[in-house]
Task: inverse folding
């Protein structure tokens, strides 16, 4: 089954034997992971297993202590000068949206393009409107985030990230804070984004989404990647006992 | 009975029962909601009536506005003797600033409102142009008030006094302490140990010392600490002290605001590739300052009223002028009138600041909760 035409064999993220500690707590253990351009990866696992920490290492919101992380051919190390430029290539969507409440939806979307990328205001506005149209809320552009529903806010957050024209998008449980009736609108937006060929790493427990768009599903537990497989095999014959247990817990409720 | 039958899903939106909303609703809910509330309302109204009746009589109807001395006042009527004010209103406003030059103060004062308007009201039309004026206003006002340029006579600081002195000290202190307070608050949160330590020391020292001590330091010793060759006038030294003192308080208020910002805001800014100064300017400060408005305004009002403390180092603020007036045998014993007048001036200024801050808070409220 070839469902992703956009996937290429050019690696955009390479993680090699990476470890991370919070103080003395060994939170990520010997993580190795390669992501090709256009690839869509879903990461799942019990709470506290290090999923968020892993994807936050990719845009260096968290710093790893051992091993290598290479993003877009740039190795993430302590003496990195242009961390900002790497970050603007990697978009991130958070569980709690993290929109800027004092700025309008449009300003949320144009702030970073104008100041980080130096885009003229007019172009930034046009780009923002284009992307707000893509997430289907152009009519909310002049409202403040507090006036929108959770699903709308999350779609604004996606548009805000896309305005930086990133090459990679990271999603950290984007639908976990949403009321059930709003989950679909956000997932639909993400599915459409996947269809444009975006490289995506998604931490989520929405297994329907994983089955539909993922090229590969990763199960993490206690800081380790326990199992990685294509969705069909991952769901139909998981190899590891912990994966089986986890799947039985989230699928049969 | 109004319990009509509606099909499920077609129940209309009805207006609330009469007398529960609007003017009558408010009156009923707030003043006459119970027997005890009704009694309280009636008693209060009667009390307020008698109080106001007496007070207004003393203040206005039985008051004397012009006379040569207190004794003459008493001969005319038995209310307040405002003559002590009206005869000396020039001193109360301008101190001993030469009468022929007072127009300079008037112009500085009036144009101050033009200079502040674009800073206080962000939606003002032609704001960009007005901001230019705001930028040059400090120099403009200094030249006008101080003199010594363009043929304007130089006026000695020792002649400054009255409300004019209050406004000069208060406004300069307020305007300078906000940016310094912001920098101190950022410094205190800085990752750089040296910057953080210096900020903490400065803040804790300024907060730990009574303002009056700082004023004595300003009047007697500050020149020791200044680079040799500089000799700041007493007025400048006092302004520096006021500024530092309230900057320390403002820094702490703003620090509270900064700490109230959720961590996710910084993560989002980081993830978008914004650097420290961009994040500070567009994310941290707008939100922190908004949260801190009541605290900042509190500090400003405190500073403004504390300017009266300069009387202890011999500057003639309105209280000093008032004391001078009371020392005059003609007006001996009119302290009620004198101090009430000074209090009224402070109340009007501070109430205006307080109202402005409420307005600003409402305007910046984008949470819609
Ligand atoms: N900043 C931090 N300091 C210390 N421990 C942390 C920090 N962030 C997360 N942790 C711990 O690391 C572990 C993994 O966290 P996280 O990556 O958020 O897990 P997940 O996203 O899979 O639920 C958890 O046990 C959590 O308590
Ligand atoms: Mg998490």
Result:
């Amino acid at each position: 089954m070839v469902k992703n035409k956009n996937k290429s064999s050019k690696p955009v993220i390479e993680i090699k034997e990476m470890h991370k500690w919070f103080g003395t707590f060994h939170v990520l253990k010997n993580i190795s992971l390669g992501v090709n351009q256009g690839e869509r990866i879903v990461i799942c696992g019990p709470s506290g297993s290090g999923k968020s920490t892993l994807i936050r290492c990719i845009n260096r919101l968290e710093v790893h202590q051992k091993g290598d992380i290479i993003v877009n051919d740039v190795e993430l190390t302590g003496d990195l000068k242009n961390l900002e430029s790497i970050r603007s290539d990697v978009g991130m969507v958070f569980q709690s949206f993290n929109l800027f409440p004092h700025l309008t939806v449009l300003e949320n979307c144009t702030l970073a393009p104008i100041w980080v990328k130096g885009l003229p205001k007019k172009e930034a506005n046009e780009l923002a409107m284009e992307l707000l149209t893509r997430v289907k809320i152009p009519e909310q552009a002049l409202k403040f985030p507090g006036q929108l529903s959770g699903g709308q806010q999350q779609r604004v957050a996606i548009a805000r990230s896309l305005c930086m024209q990133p090459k990679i998008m990271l999603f950290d449980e984007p639908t976990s804070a949403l009321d059930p009736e709003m989950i679909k609108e956000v997932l639909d937006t993400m599915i459409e984004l996947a269809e444009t060929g975006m490289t995506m790493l998604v931490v989520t427990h929405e297994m329907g989404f994983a089955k539909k768009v993922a090229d590969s599903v990763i199960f993490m537990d206690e800081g380790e990647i326990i199992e990685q497989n294509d969705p069909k095999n991952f769901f139909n014959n998981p190899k590891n006992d912990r994966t089986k247990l986890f799947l039985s817990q989230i699928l049969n409720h | 009975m109004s319990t009509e039958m509606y099909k499920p899903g077609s129940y209309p939106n009805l207006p609330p029962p009469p007398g529960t909303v609007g003017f009558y609703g408010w009156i009923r809910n707030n003043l006459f909601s119970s027997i005890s509330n009704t009694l309280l309302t009636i008693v209060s109204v009667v009390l307020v009536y008698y109080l106001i009746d007496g007070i207004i009589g003393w203040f206005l109807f039985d008051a004397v506005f012009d006379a040569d001395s207190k004794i003459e006042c008493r001969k005319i009527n038995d209310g307040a003797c405002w003559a002590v004010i009206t005869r000396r209103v020039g001193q109360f406003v301008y101190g001993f600033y030469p009468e022929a030059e007072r127009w300079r103060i008037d112009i500085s004062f009036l144009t101050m409102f033009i200079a502040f308007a674009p800073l206080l009201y962000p939606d003002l039309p032609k704001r960009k142009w007005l901001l230019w004026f705001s930028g040059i206003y400090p120099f403009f006002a200094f030249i006008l008030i101080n003199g010594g340029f363009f043929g304007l006579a130089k006026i000695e600081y020792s002649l400054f006094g009255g409300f004019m002195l209050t406004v000069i000290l208060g406004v300069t202190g307020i305007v300078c302490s906000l940016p310094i307070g912001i920098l101190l608050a950022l410094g205190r949160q800085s990752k750089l140990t040296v910057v953080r330590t210096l900020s903490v020391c400065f803040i804790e020292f300024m907060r730990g010392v009574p303002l009056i001590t700082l004023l004595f330091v300003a009047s007697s010793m500050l020149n020791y600490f200044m680079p040799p060759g500089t000799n700041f006038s007493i007025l400048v030294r006092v302004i520096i002290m006021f500024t530092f003192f309230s900057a320390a308080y403002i820094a702490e208020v703003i620090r509270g605001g900064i700490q109230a910002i959720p961590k996710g805001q910084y993560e989002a800014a980081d993830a978008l590739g914004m650097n420290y100064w961009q994040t500070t300017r567009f994310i941290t400060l707008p939100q922190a300052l908004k949260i801190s408005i009541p605290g900042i305004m509190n500090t400003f009002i405190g500073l403004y009223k504390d300017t009266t403390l300069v009387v202890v180092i011999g500057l003639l603020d309105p209280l000093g002028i008032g004391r001078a007036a009371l020392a005059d045998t003609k007006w001996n014993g009119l302290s009620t009138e004198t101090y009430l007048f000074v209090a009224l001036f402070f109340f009007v200024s501070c109430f205006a600041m307080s109202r402005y801050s409420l307005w600003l808070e409402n305007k910046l409220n984008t949470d819609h909760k």
User: Anything to note?
Assistant: Chain A touches chain B through 29 residues (CB under 8 Å).
